[in-house]
Each structure stands twice: as C-alpha cells, then as structure tokens.
Design goal:
This protein has 1066 residues and is mainly beta. 12% of the residues lie in helices and 31% in strands. Strands 1, 2, 3, 4, 5, 9 and 10 form a 7-stranded mixed sheet that branches. It has a 7-stranded parallel sheet with strand order 7-8-6-11-12-13-14, with helices on both faces. The relative contact order is 0.09.
C-alpha cells in the first residue's frame, strides 16, 4: 500500500493544509468492544467483553487499510467532488498591518478597498492582525502591494482523521501500569526530584479539553485575575470571564459545517472539547496523579491552560479542523497570560503569522513543543510549527524503542517520545468514529506524534519547575545530550527523551549548530555552519564529521568521526565556521556534523546537523518549488521548443478551496518554466487522477504537441487535450466526454502517442479507470487522430484500464497492436487489439495478480522480431482481496505463457514488482528485464534466471522496504550499461554486475513513492552529456550531470515507459 497510499497523502497534505498529528486505529474484528461502558469504574459491558476475551489486553489491532483513509482523503470521502476537506476557510484572509498604522487607518483601508473585517484576531499596540472576507481573489495581489500591509495570507485550516482503537485496558482503580511511555522516559525516577508546580503552566492548543473530566479538573489552569460570570474583563486582558482559558472557534458564515452537537459558531469562555483529541493530549501532559483514578500525567502538579482552536467539522464523519486565525490567537493568549510551555499537536505549511506569534512567545522564554507529523517522511515542508528553529520537534516511538511506523523523522527532529498505543483521558462515551474514543469510562488509546508531543511538554514542565530561567538553547542541549537510545536506522532526533536526566542536570552549557544546513546538498566550495559553544561551566568544544551509512544501515549515526575543529577552550556564540570537504577527501554521501561541548566535570553536551555532498549535482540544483504540491508521474523529457535541449514535462496538483486543480509544467535546465507554461486548462476547477502527459510531433509540423486529460468536478466530465504552444489547442480538441460520474471516483492514465494506423501522422490513446461500475460505458480506451476525430473502431468499452497501455507490432507483420489491461470487478484481464479495434486472436487472458506495468520487447530474439509481453504484478494497492501471490509473467504475442514467476505474500509487507525497464545489460546480444521486487533490484534473463550479481537488496532510512523505478543508461560512456534506480529516498547506481557505482547512492530531500517521478535521462543542460532528473513528491527537484554522451546508444531505456510517448516498447 505504501506507494500510492503515501503519494495520495502528500496529494492531500499540500502546501495549504495543516494536519493534526494523530494516528488512530480501528478494529473491525471486535465491533462490540467499541460499545464501551459509560460507567466511570470501567465495569459493565466492557468488563464482560474483557472477561470473555482475556487476550484483548495484549492485542495490537492495526488495520493498515485505515492508513488509506487518513492518507487518501479523496477516496475515503466518497464520490468525486463530495466531502472534500478544504485547506483553508473560503474567502477568508489574515492581514497584518504595519506597526505605524492606527485603528483609524485600518478602518479607512477597509473602506477604500471595500473589504469586510470579520474580527480583530490580534489587537496589540505593536501587532494588529485582522480576519477579513475577500471574495475576489485578484484583490489579494493588490493588497500585498499596499504600503500599509505587512503580510496577507489565507486563513488555513488543520485537519485530523479520527479512528481508533488498538489496545484495551484492564479496568481497575489505576491504569498506571498500562502507560508504558512513563517507563520508557524514566518519569518515575524524575518524579523523585519533582512532580512539577502549579506555577508551571502548560498551554494545550487543540480542539479544547473536557476540563470537567475527574482526572483533569484539579489541574486545569484558572485565571485568578478574573471573577467568574460577572461579564467584566477584570484583568484587562481583552477577554471577559476567561476563567479557564478561551474558545477561539467561530466558523459563522465560513461555509464549513460543524458536526451535529458541536459548538463552533461563537467564541466564548468555555474551551470544552467535543471531538476528544485535545482531551487525550491534555491527559498525557498533566492528568492528576495519586488520586486513585485513571492515569498519571507527565507533569502531575503542573496546570493545564486550555485554548480551543479546533472543532469537529462534518465531512461525512467528524473531522478535526483548526483554523490558523484561531491558532494565532491562542499563541498570543498563552504568551500574554503566563504560559510556561505551549504544546502543539498539529502542523502544516510555513506561515509568517504563526512564525511571528511563536517568536513573540519565545521572546518571553516560553518553551514551544510541536509534533513532527505522521506522514512517515523526513520532509518538513508541511511539518510547521515543529520545523521552526525555536520549536522543540518531537517524533514518535513504539514500546520496543523503534520509530513508530507512521512518524516523521530526520535531522530537523529534536527528540523522540512514546507515541504508539498511548493511554490517556477521553470524553466519556465518545463513540468509535471520534478522535480517541472512550473504551473504559473516560479513558482510551490513541497513537501519533500528537501523543508524543504533550509527553515532552509535560517533561519540560518538570524541568521548568526546577529551573524557571532555563533558556531554549539550554533546553535543546539538555534534550539532545541526555536521551535514551532508540533502535533502528532512522534518525528520529538525538534519542528518546529521558526525564530523570533532564531534571537532575537542570542546566548545561549550550551546544548549538545552525539547523539551516540540514538536508542541504553541497557540490563544491566551502560549507558554512554557525556554531555556539558557551555557558555554564564551559571547558572546551570540538567539531566532528562522520559519514552516514545509507544502504543496509543499522544506525543513523556514523560509525567513525573525524575532527574538523580540534579541542578549543574559547567560548563562541553564533560564530561562523567553514570547511571545504574536498580538502578532507570526503566522497559523495550523507554526513553528520557533531558539536561536542565539555563542561568542567568533563561531561559532554552535543548537537547534530546533517547535510549531503554530491559533486555531480548541476550547479543551482537541487531546487525546491513549494507550488509543486504534488508532482504527478510520469515525468517526461523532450525537446519541446526545438532549442536542442530536453525540457522537463510533468503535471502537478494543487488543492484550492473546495477542489483540486492541475497544472501542466515544462521546465528548462535552469528550473524555470518555458514561455506559456504552466497551463491550467480553461482555468477551470478540476481533479486529475492518475498519470501525467505525453509529448511528440503528432501532426508532422515542426512544433511538438502535448497530450493530457482533465477531469472537471463541476461538470462531471472528462476532457482530452492536445496542446501546441501552451494556449493553442489542436483543432478538434478538447474532446469532451460528459456524464462521466457513475457512482464513484475516476481518473485517467497518461496518454500514449504512436502511429497506430500507419498514416502520415500519429494518434493519441486515452484511457480511463475509476471506482464506480468498472464496465459501464464511461470507462475504457479511446484512440483519436490529431484533428480530434476517433480512429475507426474506437473508442471501446474495455472496463477500467488500471495502467498505461503499450503499443507495438507484436507479430512483426507491419501493423501496430495495442496491449491493454482491464479490471472487470472480479479479475484483471489482458487484451490485445488491432489498430482498427478488433480483438487480436488468442487473447482475453486472466492475470493472477494486480498488474503494475506492461513492457513490449523481443526478449527471446528467435522469432523474427515478434514481441513478447512482460507483465509485472503487485498487491500494493490491490483490488484483489487477500492475494496469495505476486510476481510477473512473460507471454508470447499469441497469448501463450512463456514464463511465470510467483512469490508468496509475506504478512504485513508491501509486495510487488514495479514497472520494468529493458536492455542488453551484459552485452550478450539478449535483452534483460530490470525491475524492483520489493526492496531487491533484479535483472532477469528471458528464461527467468537472474543475471550474474543479481538481485541486489537494499534497506533505506525510514520505513521504506521497496524500490520505485529504474532506467538503463551508459552514464560514463564506457560501453557498459548502468542501472539507475530510485528507492523512496535514495537514487541508486549499479554496474551491470550489481556493484554500486562510485558516487551513489544519492540522497533525496523528499520521498518519491510512486513510479515515474524519476529517474529520467537525457540532455537537459544542452552540453551533449547525460543528465538525470528526479522529482520528489512535494516540489524537491534534483538534476545531476554525467560524462556519457546523451545519444540513443547510451540512453537505452531513459524514462518511465521507455520514451516521452509512453509506448512501453523496446
């Protein structure tokens, strides 16, 4: 499931979306357990269930299909266009005015621009931020240029998907023994030193808190400056009767519907929780302890300030939403009303408003804690506020001290903490479709970095109690230097937080490296890093560097360290240190810098940053283009503008209010769009699903055409385009297919361009699939000429077409055939059609697995050029229930089976052979097939045997267990083919015998996750040499150059589906 599911996640968690970082599980196996007792003592029905199911207390019921529900909201939310969760409140914007602007000036600004102010979000003397309604988006650009305006941003929202449950407690007087995270973080020992203090206030910004919960109520912060219910702002903080914090939620006239019974249409002084997420978070940080009830909070004597910024929205199920204006107001309230720590279990794209508010809080020595996220990635593009430097970012671990399978990770993460199957307080009676449902009279389990974050916040509450003046830099040094080790190869922070060591040491000198170089790529010259080494009992510091093992690593830390700066006894603060890696003969790869600061007791305090060296990266690359929220495969290379250079073509999806919209891009070697691109067809709302585009000179003139398909949500119709010079549609295009909604979602594959009928021009094949009735007339295959007319015999209703068709003369008779696969709701069928649409004899074959790719090639070289058909199979996003095997088949042109390889399914693993590439790898005159089989790259001969030196198996950082796609090129021009393959986080290079190429693997800053995002090879820079391009999911683009000539001899199989036309034929 990993690739398409996680790709779909990143589709949804686009640059405008923030996610509340909680992952929960739901068991379909024991539905009766979800009907939990409402009795406070855990007796009754739940007790009966546990009595009859003694092993429930030890179960971990993880249904991986529910990851799809979180990661692919479009499919989970029902039919196309329904239940779309927007990434922002429609037509609402936050505007911050410059400090010199008065209230009178603001009112005049609104009057002159005919704008409506909804409310003043922040109204401080030096910070004035308003929430306004703007229906005409063109006005936004004008406002940005207004000299009175500092910043304007959309009012973004954060969302959460709420499913549970994974474990069940044994009802008794206390559940302390079920809180495994307390043991893992040494809290019992820390409580010997301190259990916190009521003067230490932890602010929970979330969906509110059920403050009346018996295990929370005693520790809820009370504003002693306010007299309850007198309707007077007694403490002059601009909030009336804010005795227990504040509810900042008001979605009046927002276009967003609340879940029935939810309170979300008026700000008030009751920050109660309806959804349950905030209540669970609050219990982890500060539940009452030693009360013979329930659980123990990490800081049991600290106070919990409740600030409600989120609520349950109605999108067919209760969905947690937090608006940025409410988050912003909450941060300022916490900072102005005595908070010591702010805990934030949400995240999204970077916002200037949120950054400014956090800077304001940090300037008041408030510690900020943020969830790293649950996307299973090291990419922090959508992990703010956790990714801000002044926020302590927290990943999640499981009870075995491994990184939790869902947790984000990377050098930007500060520390790890338990986050899987965490028991905490819930809203009594909360049902199973809510966040953190109740399973034992006010208690239940949830999982996520949402859970690990308040645990760290609570431990910091202990630290703040024993050292109220401790600074952020000292806290981060303590955290990085006192952790327990975690297991595994993935860098998820310096370790698992150790509460005992934190409160025992209480303070330290500062060891700080500037994190801005984390995941940067350097190809030449000096590498700069800002170093701070100073403070209490400082003795000396040194700086070391070590290379990280990237393949089959057992630890994220280097095995050996080399000194860059020897022991130095002078304190430094924000001093720039530079070094040239080539002076140390450092080769390409990923490196960690380690700063060691020694105190007078010879204790070592540390910090880390990580970066990459890559001497083949083209100057100016890699590039990060945040507007490319999701790059849709396959990427293509083609000389579109006849300048002698290959351009880079692809589609990207962006989520606009209420809809997805697609843009089609053509980039040059500088990473700039060529003239006229990108395009958004008709500037309409739409949702493209599936493949990307194809390009060729279709009509025989000198200008190539680009083919793609478009789905309009508004009209429920499909449009097929053929575009020349961006805005010039070919006559007869677009081809419009109406009434395409058949009761489910649908999408299109990438087109294929080929000379189908033997004429002077070329034809375009468009194919569609979906999730409604798979064999309705809405789905299938169409072939059209360059004037938009259908080729005789086409289109055909072939049922769903799940992968790109391939074309070639399979029987060597001079006529072109089309090979396609369809899904008829019970089986996958492979078919072959003549150019006129008639069935080719001998076909209609059932496949034993879900197909992932088709390839045509003369593999046996013994039948006068007739082509064999290679079909790869998988279970990764399977239509077939409970598949028992996966593998591949090789078939003759007449449909007879030549060879089949089947592998048994392994439990709880994504299996599959990815789309293949073909070439004569070992120069023996016969073709080999190259593809990934899970985490092993294999080279297979025609008879099914592996070539010498193959397969080669790899293990990457994170939770990847498989490769994505491959190309075959001679990158050094020595006459021997090389195989370039992409895993989820690394680009691999292998010789024909399976040895690793020098300079490989090459690290990526983003996940690839799905075939076709690279690699692609051609002459992009125009120097005649081979360039290789790879794109990550979220706008991270990489370009390398190599010494081999970019000609047809060396570019054997240079891109997904072989060529820019997607023919799939060798």
């Amino acid at each position: 499931m990993k690739k398409r599911v996680l790709s779909s996640l990143i589709v949804f968690a686009l640059s405008l979306i923030a996610l509340l970082f909680v992952v929960e599980y739901f068991s379909n196996d024991s539905p009766e357990v979800l009907l939990s007792s409402e009795s406070g003592d855990g007796s009754g029905e739940l007790g009966e269930i546990l009595e009859n199911n003694q092993d429930l207390q030890d179960l971990e019921l993880i249904n991986n299909d529910l990851f799809l529900e979180r990661m692919n909201p479009e499919e989970f939310n029902g039919e196309e266009g329904e239940n779309k969760i927007p990434d922002r409140v429609p037509n609402q914007y936050l505007i911050q005015f410059k400090q010199v602007v008065t209230d009178e000036g603001i009112n005049q600004f609104y009057s002159e621009n005919r704008l409506e102010e909804i409310r003043r979000v922040v109204n401080k003397e030096d910070v004035k931020i308003s929430l306004v309604n703007i229906e005409d988006e063109s006005v936004v650009e004008e406002i940005k240029q207004n000299p009175l305006v500092e910043v304007i941003e959309s009012n973004y929202i954060a969302t959460t998907f709420t499913r549970s449950i994974s474990k069940f407690p044994i009802p008794n007087d206390t559940y302390l023994s079920n809180q495994w995270g307390i043991t893992q973080t040494n809290l019992l020992d820390a409580w010997i030193t301190t259990k916190g203090s009521p003067s230490t206030i932890i602010s929970i910004i979330d969906t509110g808190v059920r403050w009346s919960h018996p295990d929370l109520s005693t520790n809820i912060w009370v504003n002693i400056g306010e007299i309850p219910n007198n309707n007077i702002d007694d403490d002059n903080n601009s909030f009336i009767d804010d005795v227990r914090g504040w509810d900042f939620v008001d979605m009046t006239n927002s276009g967003i519907n609340c879940w029935p019974g939810e309170d979300c249409y008026q700000q008030d002084n009751n920050p109660d929780d309806f959804l349950g997420h905030g209540t669970h978070v609050a219990g982890i940080a500060g539940a009452v302890t030693n009360n013979n009830l329930g659980i123990a909070g990490a800081c049991p004597n600290c106070k919990t300030m409740v600030l409600r910024a989120g609520f349950a929205a109605d999108y067919g199920y209760p969905t947690g939403i937090l608006t940025y204006n409410a988050i912003l107001s909450s941060i300022y309230y916490a900072a102005d009303n005595g908070a010591s720590i702010i805990s934030m279990s949400f995240g999204g794209q970077r916002s200037q408003f949120i950054e400014s508010a956090l800077n304001y809080a940090s300037s008041r020595n408030i510690l900020l804690v943020g969830a790293a996220g649950n996307d299973g990635t090291k990419d922090f593009s959508y992990a703010y506020p956790a990714a801000f430097d002044n926020v302590i970012s927290v990943s999640a671990t499981d009870s075995t001290n491994n990184k939790a399978w869902f947790s984000n990770y990377g050098y930007w993460v500060d520390v790890a903490a338990p986050g899987l199957d965490i028991l905490s307080t819930t809203i009594p009676g909360n049902p199973q479709n809510f966040a953190c449902p109740d399973v034992a009279g006010g208690y239940g389990y949830c999982s996520g970095t949402s859970m690990s974050t308040p645990l760290v916040a609570g431990i910091l509450g202990l630290l703040k109690t024993v050292n109220t003046a401790i600074t952020l830099d000292e806290v981060k040094t303590l955290i990085h230097s006192t952790t327990n080790p975690y297991l595994g190869r993935t860098y998820s922070g310096s370790g698992i937080i150790n509460a005992q060591r934190m409160v025992n040491f209480q303070s330290s000198p500062v060891a700080k490296l500037d994190g801005s170089i984390n995941y940067q790529h350097f190809s030449s010259g000096q590498i700069p890093v800002t170093v701070s080494a100073y403070g209490k009992n400082f003795l000396k510091y040194n700086l070391q560097i070590g290379k990280v093992a990237e393949i089959n690593a057992v630890s994220p830390f280097p095995a050996n360290w080399i000194a860059l700066v020897n022991d130095t006894y002078t304190q430094i603060n924000n001093s720039l240190v530079t070094f040239n890696p080539q002076n140390f003969n450092f080769g390409p790869g990923r490196y960690l810098l380690k700063l060691n600061v020694y105190d007078t007791s010879n204790r070592v305090w540390i910090d880390y940053v990580g970066f990459s060296l890559d001497y083949s990266q083209v100057i100016g690359w890699p590039k990060y283009i945040p507007q490319l929220q999701e790059i849709v495969p396959p990427i293509k290379l083609f000389d579109v503008n006849n300048d002698g250079n290959d351009e880079i073509l692809f589609e990207s999806n962006i989520y606009l209010p209420g809809r997805y919209s697609s843009f089609y891009h053509i980039f040059n070697y500088l990473g700039n769009s060529i003239s006229g691109w990108p395009i958004n067809p008709n500037n309409t709302m739409g949702s493209r699903k599936g493949g990307s585009l194809a390009v060729d000179n279709v009509d025989g003139d000198i200008i190539p055409e680009v083919a793609f398909s478009w789905i309009e949500d508004s009209a429920i119709r499909v449009k097929h385009f053929l575009v020349e010079n961006s805005s010039n549609y070919q006559s007869g295009f677009p081809i419009v297919l109406t009434n395409q909604n058949t009761g489910g979602g649908y999408w299109t594959n990438s087109p294929v361009i080929a000379n189908i009928d033997g004429g002077i021009d070329k034809e375009i094949i468009y194919s569609r699939e979906g999730s409604g009735n798979p064999c309705s007339s809405d789905f299938g295959l169409g072939i059209y000429k360059q004037n938009g007319s259908a080729l005789p015999g086409w289109p055909k209703n072939t049922c769903f077409v799940p992968i790109i068709p391939v074309v070639g003369d399979i029987d060597a008779d001079g006529d072109t055939e089309i090979v396609t696969i369809s899904w008829n709701q019970t089986a996958f069928i492979i078919n072959v059609f003549n150019h006129d649409g008639t069935p080719y004899p001998g076909w209609n074959k059932t496949l034993p697995f879900q197909p992932t790719g088709l390839v045509l090639a003369d593999l046996d070289r013994n039948d006068n050029g007739q082509l064999e058909i290679y079909v790869s199979g998988s279970n990764v996003y399977s239509y077939i229930p409970n598949p028992s095997t996966y593998g591949y088949q090789i078939l003759n042109h007449d449909g007879s089976l030549i060879y089949q390889v089947s592998y048994p399914m392994r439990p709880n693993r994504d299996q599959g052979t990815e789309a293949a590439s073909v070439g004569d790898i070992d120069n023996d005159g016969f073709l080999e097939v190259v593809n990934w089989l899970g985490n092993c790259l294999q080279v297979v001969k025609f008879n099914g045997s592996s070539a010498s030196g193959w397969p080669v198996c790899i293990s990457e950082e994170g939770d990847s267990n498989g490769g994505i796609s491959t190309i075959i090129v001679d990158i050094d021009g020595d006459g021997s083919k090389e195989i370039i393959g992409v895993g989820t986080e690394l680009v691999y290079g292998f010789t024909r015998t399976g040895s690793q190429l020098q300079g490989f693997p090459k690290p990526l800053n983003d996940l690839v996750w799905f075939p076709g995002r690279g690699p692609v090879a051609g002459d992009i820079t125009g120097d005649g040499l081979i360039d290789i391009f790879v794109a990550g999911t979220n706008g991270n683009l990489n370009l390398w150059t190599f010494p081999g000539r970019a000609n047809s001899t060396n570019l054997v199989w240079p891109q997904f589906q072989k060529d820019a036309q997607n023919t799939g034929k060798y």
